Amino acid sequence: MDLEDFGxxxxxxxxxxxxxxxxxxxxxxxxxxxxxxxxxxQNNDEILPCITPLGFPARRKSILESAMxxxxxxxxxxxxxxxxxxxxxxxxxxxxxxxxxxxPLEMVRLAPSASNKxxxxxxxxxxxxxxxLKHTVGYAKYLAFDLQRVDLxxxxxxxEYSAKELGYVGKWAIRPPEExxxxxxxxxxVSWDEQ
Length: 195
Ligand SMILES: Cc1cc2nc3c(=O)[nH]c(=O)nc-3n(C[C@H](O)[C@H](O)[C@H](O)COP(=O)(O)O)c2cc1C
What we know:
Layout: H1 2-19, E1 23-24, H2 33-40, E2 54-55, H3 63-72, H4 80-83, E3 84-86, H5 102-109, E4 120-125, E5 128-134, H6 147-165, E6 170-173, E7 186-194
Parallel strand pairs: 3-4
Antiparallel strand pairs: 1-2, 4-5, 5-7, 6-7
Helix pairs in contact: 1-6, 5-6
The chain binds flavin mononucleotide.
């Protein structure tokens, strides 16, 4: 789970920088990997998945930034019905039925993701929340690794930090539920066990 771990830790840094009033931007595709790898003295057995600039944001967006945001549909997010389910992938988990985990789930929904693909899917079953990655077909072929696994780490950070903020106790476990049928292109990643 190296890429999920990277996403979790890097998003923690991004959230902290944001708390300090600094501007950031996840960059996984649009930076010159070769030059950065030289600067950090990257070894052959290491990968450099993403970077972020860190500083004071300009007051106005550049034309390039506006175009990138428009093409990724960055200002929109998928609805609850597309992302969250109860018991299996057949039944939606509506916001009103989410009860105490409404805010952690909403924080996952609002999280950043590569090209705003929002590949996370969560199935609630009793006291467990199972996280799945719905791969965007053809997306992984552009890079040497699967950037969408980084997105899942970001989702884990948003879910865990907001659950803890609300005083909820739980822990991560990799225990795929056998009774849940997984839709095409989706993959089980991890579960949050409420305690
Ligand atoms: C793992 C990851 C990689 C990203 N890579 C890029 C990138 O290479 N270039 C870029 O302009 N934005 C990149 N983004 C930013 C996303 O496009 C952005 O988060 C998404 O469109 C949603 O917009 P928002 O975060 O402003 O809400 C990346 C985001 C993530 C999480």
